Amino acid sequence: MDAVVKSLVERSQPQRDNSARELLPTREEAEAAVRVLLRWAGDDPTREGLVDTPARVVKAYEELFSGYREDPTSVLARVFEEVHGYDDIILVRDIPFSSHCEHHVVPFVGVAHIAYYPSEEGVVGLSKLARLVDVFARRLQTQEALTAQIIGAIDLHLRPRGCAIMIEAEHMCMSMRGVRKQGAQTITTQFTGVFRDDPAEQARFLTMLRHGK
Ligand SMILES: Nc1nc2c(ncn2[C@@H]2O[C@H](COP(=O)(O)OP(=O)(O)OP(=O)(O)O)[C@@H](O)[C@H]2O)c(=O)[nH]1
Ligand SMILES: [Zn+2]
Which biological processes are named by the entry's GO terms (predicted)? Predict the structure, then answer.
Protein backbone atom coordinates (compact mmCIF):
# COMPACT_ATOMS: atom_id res chain seq x y z
CA MET A 1 0.00 0.00 0.00
CA ASP A 2 1.47 3.37 -0.89
CA ALA A 3 2.12 6.02 1.72
CA VAL A 4 -0.82 8.25 0.83
CA VAL A 5 -3.36 5.43 1.03
CA LYS A 6 -1.72 4.13 4.22
CA SER A 7 -1.99 7.46 5.99
CA LEU A 8 -5.64 7.79 5.00
CA VAL A 9 -6.39 4.23 6.08
CA GLU A 10 -5.04 5.12 9.50
CA ARG A 11 -7.63 7.89 9.58
CA SER A 12 -10.25 5.31 8.63
CA GLN A 13 -10.02 3.54 11.94
CA PRO A 14 -12.75 4.54 14.39
CA GLN A 15 -11.79 8.10 15.10
CA ARG A 16 -12.69 8.34 18.74
CA ASP A 17 -10.20 6.97 21.20
CA ASN A 18 -11.20 6.60 24.85
CA SER A 19 -10.16 10.12 25.79
CA ALA A 20 -12.34 11.55 23.01
CA ARG A 21 -15.26 9.37 24.12
CA GLU A 22 -15.00 10.78 27.61
CA LEU A 23 -15.31 14.22 26.05
CA LEU A 24 -18.59 13.35 24.31
CA PRO A 25 -21.18 15.95 25.22
CA THR A 26 -24.40 14.85 26.84
CA ARG A 27 -27.56 14.77 24.74
CA GLU A 28 -28.77 17.83 26.67
CA GLU A 29 -25.58 19.73 25.82
CA ALA A 30 -25.93 18.77 22.14
CA GLU A 31 -29.56 19.95 22.10
CA ALA A 32 -28.55 23.23 23.75
CA ALA A 33 -25.95 23.73 21.00
CA VAL A 34 -28.68 23.28 18.36
CA ARG A 35 -30.80 25.91 20.11
CA VAL A 36 -27.85 28.33 19.90
CA LEU A 37 -27.54 27.69 16.15
CA LEU A 38 -31.27 28.19 15.65
CA ARG A 39 -30.93 31.56 17.39
CA TRP A 40 -27.85 32.27 15.25
CA ALA A 41 -29.97 31.57 12.14
CA GLY A 42 -32.35 34.25 13.38
CA ASP A 43 -35.24 32.18 14.70
CA ASP A 44 -36.82 31.58 18.09
CA PRO A 45 -36.16 28.04 19.42
CA THR A 46 -39.04 28.41 21.91
CA ARG A 47 -41.74 28.80 19.26
CA GLU A 48 -44.00 25.79 18.81
CA GLY A 49 -42.60 24.56 15.50
CA LEU A 50 -39.04 24.55 16.77
CA VAL A 51 -39.50 23.27 20.31
CA ASP A 52 -38.77 19.64 19.41
CA THR A 53 -36.24 20.47 16.69
CA PRO A 54 -33.09 20.24 18.84
CA ALA A 55 -34.03 16.69 19.89
CA ARG A 56 -34.73 15.78 16.25
CA VAL A 57 -31.45 17.26 15.05
CA VAL A 58 -29.45 15.41 17.69
CA LYS A 59 -31.21 12.16 16.75
CA ALA A 60 -30.56 12.85 13.06
CA TYR A 61 -26.87 13.43 13.84
CA GLU A 62 -26.72 9.96 15.40
CA GLU A 63 -27.88 8.52 12.08
CA LEU A 64 -26.02 10.84 9.71
CA PHE A 65 -22.74 10.35 11.60
CA SER A 66 -23.18 6.72 12.62
CA GLY A 67 -20.00 5.85 10.73
CA TYR A 68 -17.88 6.93 13.68
CA ARG A 69 -19.29 3.98 15.61
CA GLU A 70 -18.82 1.46 12.82
CA ASP A 71 -15.75 -0.56 11.98
CA PRO A 72 -14.75 -1.35 8.37
CA THR A 73 -13.00 -4.51 9.57
CA SER A 74 -16.23 -6.14 10.67
CA VAL A 75 -18.02 -5.12 7.45
CA LEU A 76 -15.38 -6.90 5.35
CA ALA A 77 -14.82 -9.81 7.74
CA ARG A 78 -16.90 -12.44 5.91
CA VAL A 79 -15.19 -13.66 2.75
CA PHE A 80 -16.48 -16.29 0.33
CA GLU A 81 -13.72 -18.53 -0.97
CA GLU A 82 -15.83 -20.73 -3.23
CA VAL A 83 -16.13 -18.79 -6.47
CA HIS A 84 -15.50 -21.70 -8.86
CA GLY A 85 -12.34 -20.20 -10.25
CA TYR A 86 -13.74 -16.73 -10.92
CA ASP A 87 -10.78 -14.39 -10.88
CA ASP A 88 -11.84 -11.53 -13.12
CA ILE A 89 -12.95 -8.02 -12.30
CA ILE A 90 -15.85 -7.42 -9.91
CA LEU A 91 -17.42 -3.99 -10.32
CA VAL A 92 -20.27 -2.52 -8.31
CA ARG A 93 -21.32 0.64 -10.06
CA ASP A 94 -23.55 3.55 -9.02
CA ILE A 95 -23.59 2.99 -5.26
CA PRO A 96 -25.49 6.04 -4.00
CA PHE A 97 -24.28 7.82 -0.89
CA SER A 98 -24.64 11.04 1.01
CA SER A 99 -21.96 12.48 3.23
CA HIS A 100 -21.11 15.79 4.88
CA CYS A 101 -18.15 17.95 4.06
CA GLU A 102 -15.88 18.57 6.99
CA HIS A 103 -15.50 22.23 6.11
CA HIS A 104 -19.11 23.38 6.29
CA VAL A 105 -21.01 20.34 7.64
CA VAL A 106 -23.17 20.54 4.52
CA PRO A 107 -24.09 17.46 2.45
CA PHE A 108 -22.33 16.19 -0.60
CA VAL A 109 -24.23 13.58 -2.55
CA GLY A 110 -23.26 11.22 -5.30
CA VAL A 111 -22.31 7.73 -6.37
CA ALA A 112 -19.32 5.49 -5.84
CA HIS A 113 -18.05 2.86 -8.27
CA ILE A 114 -15.81 0.18 -6.84
CA ALA A 115 -13.96 -2.57 -8.71
CA TYR A 116 -11.45 -5.17 -7.63
CA TYR A 117 -9.69 -8.27 -8.82
CA PRO A 118 -10.13 -10.89 -6.10
CA SER A 119 -7.13 -12.64 -4.61
CA GLU A 120 -7.14 -16.32 -3.72
CA GLU A 121 -8.51 -15.29 -0.33
CA GLY A 122 -11.90 -14.93 -1.98
CA VAL A 123 -14.59 -12.36 -2.55
CA VAL A 124 -16.72 -10.26 -0.27
CA GLY A 125 -20.51 -10.05 -0.38
CA LEU A 126 -21.54 -7.34 -2.84
CA SER A 127 -23.64 -5.49 -0.28
CA LYS A 128 -20.58 -5.15 1.92
CA LEU A 129 -18.98 -2.78 -0.59
CA ALA A 130 -22.04 -0.55 -0.33
CA ARG A 131 -21.98 -0.86 3.48
CA LEU A 132 -18.31 0.10 3.46
CA VAL A 133 -19.12 3.26 1.52
CA ASP A 134 -21.61 4.21 4.22
CA VAL A 135 -19.19 3.50 7.09
CA PHE A 136 -16.97 6.26 5.77
CA ALA A 137 -19.63 8.48 4.19
CA ARG A 138 -21.43 8.81 7.52
CA ARG A 139 -18.59 10.83 8.95
CA LEU A 140 -17.35 14.35 8.30
CA GLN A 141 -15.36 14.03 5.12
CA THR A 142 -13.59 15.43 2.14
CA GLN A 143 -14.29 13.57 -1.08
CA GLU A 144 -10.60 12.79 -1.45
CA ALA A 145 -10.36 11.24 2.01
CA LEU A 146 -13.59 9.29 1.49
CA THR A 147 -12.18 7.87 -1.75
CA ALA A 148 -8.86 6.89 -0.20
CA GLN A 149 -10.38 5.44 2.96
CA ILE A 150 -12.73 3.14 1.04
CA ILE A 151 -10.02 1.78 -1.26
CA GLY A 152 -7.56 1.59 1.63
CA ALA A 153 -9.93 -0.58 3.66
CA ILE A 154 -10.51 -2.93 0.71
CA ASP A 155 -6.79 -3.16 0.07
CA LEU A 156 -6.04 -3.82 3.70
CA HIS A 157 -8.70 -6.44 4.38
CA LEU A 158 -9.20 -8.26 1.07
CA ARG A 159 -5.66 -7.98 -0.32
CA PRO A 160 -7.02 -7.90 -3.90
CA ARG A 161 -4.74 -8.01 -6.92
CA GLY A 162 -5.96 -4.54 -7.58
CA CYS A 163 -8.72 -2.14 -6.63
CA ALA A 164 -10.22 0.87 -8.41
CA ILE A 165 -12.63 3.46 -7.14
CA MET A 166 -14.33 6.48 -8.63
CA ILE A 167 -16.60 8.84 -6.73
CA GLU A 168 -18.80 11.42 -8.45
CA ALA A 169 -20.52 13.92 -6.21
CA GLU A 170 -22.15 17.32 -5.98
CA HIS A 171 -21.16 19.40 -2.99
CA MET A 172 -23.99 21.47 -1.54
CA CYS A 173 -21.41 23.84 -0.07
CA MET A 174 -20.64 24.75 -3.69
CA SER A 175 -24.24 24.83 -4.93
CA MET A 176 -26.36 26.20 -2.05
CA ARG A 177 -23.86 28.73 -0.72
CA GLY A 178 -20.45 30.22 -1.41
CA VAL A 179 -19.68 30.12 -5.11
CA ARG A 180 -23.23 28.78 -5.90
CA LYS A 181 -22.42 26.62 -8.90
CA GLN A 182 -25.29 24.15 -9.08
CA GLY A 183 -24.63 20.88 -10.86
CA ALA A 184 -20.83 21.01 -10.74
CA GLN A 185 -19.63 17.46 -10.29
CA THR A 186 -16.42 16.51 -8.52
CA ILE A 187 -14.82 13.25 -9.65
CA THR A 188 -12.12 11.48 -7.67
CA THR A 189 -10.36 8.22 -8.48
CA GLN A 190 -7.78 6.05 -6.82
CA PHE A 191 -6.12 2.85 -8.02
CA THR A 192 -4.06 0.16 -6.36
CA GLY A 193 -2.27 -2.99 -7.59
CA VAL A 194 -2.84 -3.90 -11.23
CA PHE A 195 -5.09 -0.88 -11.74
CA ARG A 196 -2.31 1.43 -10.61
CA ASP A 197 0.42 -0.38 -12.56
CA ASP A 198 -1.36 -1.08 -15.84
CA PRO A 199 -3.05 1.76 -17.78
CA ALA A 200 -4.99 -0.88 -19.77
CA GLU A 201 -6.68 -1.99 -16.52
CA GLN A 202 -7.63 1.59 -15.71
CA ALA A 203 -9.05 1.91 -19.22
CA ARG A 204 -11.06 -1.28 -18.72
CA PHE A 205 -12.49 0.07 -15.47
CA LEU A 206 -13.49 3.33 -17.15
CA THR A 207 -15.00 1.49 -20.13
CA MET A 208 -17.08 -0.72 -17.84
CA LEU A 209 -18.33 2.39 -16.01
CA ARG A 210 -19.50 3.94 -19.26
CA HIS A 211 -21.04 0.71 -20.55
CA GLY A 212 -24.82 0.78 -20.46
CA LYS A 213 -25.12 4.47 -19.64
N1 LIG B 1 -10.68 19.45 -1.75
C2 LIG B 1 -11.92 19.48 -1.26
N3 LIG B 1 -12.46 20.67 -0.97
C4 LIG B 1 -13.71 20.68 -0.50
C5 LIG B 1 -14.47 19.54 -0.27
N6 LIG B 1 -15.68 19.91 0.20
C7 LIG B 1 -15.64 21.25 0.26
N8 LIG B 1 -14.46 21.73 -0.16
C9 LIG B 1 -13.93 23.09 -0.30
O10 LIG B 1 -13.37 23.53 0.90
C11 LIG B 1 -13.02 24.88 0.69
C12 LIG B 1 -13.02 25.63 1.99
O13 LIG B 1 -12.49 26.89 1.65
P14 LIG B 1 -12.36 28.11 2.66
O15 LIG B 1 -11.84 29.29 1.89
O16 LIG B 1 -11.60 27.66 3.88
O17 LIG B 1 -13.87 28.33 3.14
P18 LIG B 1 -15.02 29.25 2.50
O19 LIG B 1 -14.68 30.69 2.70
O20 LIG B 1 -16.31 28.79 3.09
O21 LIG B 1 -14.92 28.90 0.94
P22 LIG B 1 -16.01 29.05 -0.21
O23 LIG B 1 -16.74 27.74 -0.33
O24 LIG B 1 -15.20 29.34 -1.45
O25 LIG B 1 -16.95 30.16 0.16
C26 LIG B 1 -13.99 25.38 -0.36
O27 LIG B 1 -13.23 25.70 -1.51
C28 LIG B 1 -14.88 24.17 -0.65
O29 LIG B 1 -15.30 24.10 -2.00
C30 LIG B 1 -13.86 18.29 -0.59
O31 LIG B 1 -14.45 17.23 -0.42
N32 LIG B 1 -12.60 18.32 -1.07
ZN1 LIG C 1 -18.14 22.22 2.27
Answer: one-carbon metabolic process; tetrahydrobiopterin biosynthetic process; tetrahydrofolate biosynthetic process
